[in-house]
Amino acid sequence: MTDSGKITPEWVRCRKDVGQKIAALTAYDFPTARLLDEAGIPILLVGDSLAMVVLGYPDTASLRLEELLPHLAAVARAKPRALVVADLPSGTYRTPVEALATGKALKQAGAEAVKLEGGVAVSEAIRALVKARIPVMAHIGLLPQSAGGRFRKVGRQPEEKEEILADARAVEEAGAFSVVVEATEAGLTAEITRRLRIPTIGIGSGSECDGQILVFHDLVGLFPWFRPPFAEPKADLAEVIREAARLFLAETQGKASPAPKRILGSERSL
Ligand code: KIV
Question: Are 215 and 251 in the same domain?
């Protein structure tokens, strides 16, 4: 953290040493970034789940870099205290040179760190980014960009377990400051968390991680058509929106009394 309270990758890395759990959420627009920052969330990920929960694509692999950049810029415009991390979209880091070009484009649009999927296979790309002073959050376990829509728990079979452990070692050695561990068997995730010096940030991988990350829409119930089993919504914004729209419709058609003149708790008059 800097003197001004800005969260840095180094601050995130050190959470493991001080034993403070890390909470991270996705954000894709200015108001969400401001609200999550005001709530004290230290990491905002402009992730490729943008493709599914905002842009309506069937998978994350469909997202193009040009589609992600305006969302990243909107989050950066909120000037959050939180660290702004952005995903390298699928197909934009096939070589270290390509990863570097993508990383630079993300940095230019406001990313303070980047995330990419893979372990051993992307360790050279991670090295190239870190060398160019672009901090990297790694992502191992289930890799949605290459999973072909098959979302399943990984790390149960001995061979797969060894591969994931090798990926964990590889991303740490390549210089990542933290690693997302997705949909990985809980015992294996706990072992990775014990073995690595950098923090593990889990999603659907049990509780024995150094932190947890969630898609914002899953946290607040804003994508009710698909709910991952591990994400327990803390609100039902889908129903709040439907209800507000129903009220407006009824009011417009003269079937309901007008809405109150002021939104409770808000500065804005209606
Ligand atoms: O894009 C995304 O939502 C992710 C998850 C791991 C949070 O990468």
Answer: no
What 8-state DSSP symbol labels residue 114? E
Ligand 1 contacts CB of residue 43 (under 6 A): no
DSSP 25: E
Contact 72, 46 (CB under 8 A): yes
Beta bridge mates, 212? 23, 202
Shared domain for 223 and 257, answered yes or no, is no
pTM of the complete model beyond 0.85: yes
| pLDDT, position 1 | 75
Measure 127 CA to ligand 1 centroid, in angstroms.
22
| Residue 182 known to be catalytic | yes
Distance in Å, CA 60 to ligand 1 centroid: 9
Residue 1 in any domain: the answer is: no
Structural domains in the chain (count): 2
Question: What rounded mean pLDDT belongs to the chain?
Answer: 94
